[in-house]
Amino acid sequence: MKATKFIVLVGGILGILAFFLPMVSIHRADFNGSVSAFQVIKGLSKASEVVSSANVNAAGIDSAVTSADLAQAKEGIDSMKGIVAAIFVPAILLTLIGGLAVKRKQFGRGAGALTLIFGLIGLGIATILRSAAEGDAGIALTLLLVTGLAGTVGGLLALVKPERLAKPVAA
Fold this sequence. Notes:
Number of helices: 6
Oligomer: single chain
Distance between the termini: 26 Å
């Protein structure tokens, strides 16, 4: 099916766009706020810089804090950045697969199988995050669901009816 590769490409692009949109949006009587994955990673980077530049003997830092504690804190912060970024890996891979399919003008069963796998992974991640956010889910989590759904549908369509490269007709 000719539209399959475009479904996958657009789904992947929406997933990448979700990185910059609010993942969690809280609206309460005493607090209103939202945060995107980009803001989380930026904040974690600043925290990592503060931990890296901290001096154990500096004023304001407890003398019980050792450089091993600071190294462990930096490692934990870097791990959190990796986890937040990993949420968007399926979207990036779907974008790459869809873009290559558009460039090559074919979307075969191999690409369809990969797309199905990454779509299901993305759909699972988005479902877990959306259920964890309960009523405070932002637009980014909805877009991640759409990305996973687009990858899953595109993968299934490519497996059922792959698009082969058109062979030139001899005159």
